[in-house]
Amino acid sequence: MVRKLLQLGLLLLASIWVIPDGYADLDVTGYTEVRRGVIRSVDYGARTAIISGYRYSFNGSYGYDHPPVTMYGSNFGSFELLVRGMKVEVEFRHSNESRAVVQLEQLADNAFEDERSKTLDYSKCSKCQEVLTSQ
């Protein structure tokens, strides 16, 4: 009986070393970054989104733990509610294939307008003036 328990314990211990961990499969870094951007496309089947030119994965670090998504003005949301044109703030980790999302929060539609007007001088760009006045 003791021998069988010892064998079972060794088997369990060996399986811990053999089973790959999710971070190793994705090659995800341990630190997170936060970026703001605009959703350009969403692939609901692959659970990925292009946000301001970068591919973000919503599969979680282990492939089954989906990151929290919150919609503007709410404490709730989901990946399936994301649509093209939304402004978002995303916390992520770098992986070998994409940026692995830790959490995402939708921002107000006018989130970048104040920041953009402070940093860009549209008066020096004639084409910009044409576009701005035509709207």
The pLDDT mean sits at 76
The CATH architecture of the domain at 22-115 comes to Beta Barrel
The CA-CA distance between the termini, in Å, is 81 Å
Q: What is the CATH topology classification name of the domain at 22-115?
A: OB fold (Dihydrolipoamide Acetyltransferase, E2P)
H/E series? HHEEEEEEHH
The number of helical elements comes to 4
Strand order of the largest sheet: 1-2-3-6-5
CATH top level assignment of the domain at 22-115 = Mainly Beta
Rg, please?
22 Å
What percent of residues are in strands? 25-35%
The largest β sheet comes out as: 5 strands, mixed, barrel
* Estimated structural class: alpha/beta
Kindly state the number of beta strands.
6
Tell me, what's the shape? elongated
Enumerate the spans where pLDDT stays under 50 for 5 or more consecutive residues.
12-25
- Helicity level, as a percent range? 25-40%
CATH superfamily of the domain at 22-115: Copper binding periplasmic protein CusF
What's the gist of this structure?
The protein is α/β, with parallel strands linked by helices. It has helices at residues 2-18, 22-26, 113-119, 126-134; strands spanning 33-43, 48-51, 54-57, 69-70, 87-94, 99-106. It has a 5-stranded mixed barrel.
How would you explain this protein's 3D organization?
- The chain has 135 residues and is α/β, with parallel strands linked by helices.
- It has a domain at 22-115: Beta Barrel (OB fold (Dihydrolipoamide Acetyltransferase, E2P)).
- The protein is built from four helices and six strands, in the order H-H-E-E-E-E-E-E-H-H.
- It has helices spanning 2-18, 22-26, 113-119, 126-134, and strands spanning 33-43, 48-51, 54-57, 69-70, 87-94, 99-106.
- The chain has a five-stranded mixed β-barrel.
- The termini are far apart.
- The relative contact order is 0.17.
